[in-house]
Amino acid sequence: MALVAWNVQGLGNKNTVRALRRLNLKYQPAVIFLSETKQKKRYLERVRRNMKMSNSFYVEPEGIAGGLALWWSDDVHITILHSSKNIIDMKISMKGEDVWFGSFVYGPPYNDDKLLFWEMLARKIADRDSKWCVIGDLNIVANQEEKLGGALIDQNSIKWYLDFLDNTNLLEIPMKEGSFTWSNRRSEEDVILEKLDRALATVEWSTFFDRAIVLVEVAIASDHCPLVLCTDGLNRRGKREFKFESKWLSEEDCDNTVKEGWGLNSHRANDKIFVGKLKRTKFELIKWSREKFGKNRRTEEQLIHLIKRLQDSPLTPGEVVVLKELKKELLKLWESEERY
């Protein structure tokens, strides 16, 4: 199962929606959690339907700030237990699996609220002798190594967080492809990089999902990187269901591919059977699509690889420009595929 957690810093930006759509296509998550949506339910519902997620729960923003959104597919069953501007707390289970607790969070950005937040989470786990996972923008760094640039980290906020970990015995789920999850997107001496987003779990949860890992994706239109929690590790999903893509219709050779697959001469006994024709046409379309659009996929993978390398390190002014251009190229590629 895959779960996405992302501080989008406003979902009104079309590039943010575009990046979210790509995450959805790539990982086919069972759950998507968004913080700082800054949008009302009516707009968020339109985006949810576009993502083809079946269920939703929202915490409305306060004015033009904050806002939480939780979407999930019919593959999971979710019961909302508690919500506030900083958390959506729930029970969750996949079909046929044990129930566990999940808390999707947007940690308070101000120190005056941090201690109360950690105390609230600690009370929740004290009432639960079970599997529990916390994921989202915790708005905290655990030590100076998790921050590069800027002022020294506040020792009080660190102490509150470390006390919370000691009291709850939570473990951090391993993170792959990224040391930092937030950036002020400046260069050299002005850059600040921090690890603000993460996933934590009880020993029981970590034992049950012993291959779980968190992937750090590219930050597009937001200062935060999306997190993708894969409960089964990096195992490849099963074969994707075949779907005819509307963009194929704009290609002249698509029509010939369908005709070839449907009317291909063969000496096989089931050549005239309808199901046999469908199978051959599907095979021809898959082969044609790989040849036709495979270059785009390779280009996308290369761009994402370069962006990830740059976004996780201090940059010279020239590298900042390069990073912006790489993101523009990636968005341009995504946009071209969405025109169909």
TrEMBL record:
Residues 5-224 form the Endonuclease/exonuclease/phosphatase domain. Pfam families: Exo_endo_phos. Signal peptide: none annotated. This is Endonuclease/exonuclease/phosphatase domain-containing protein.
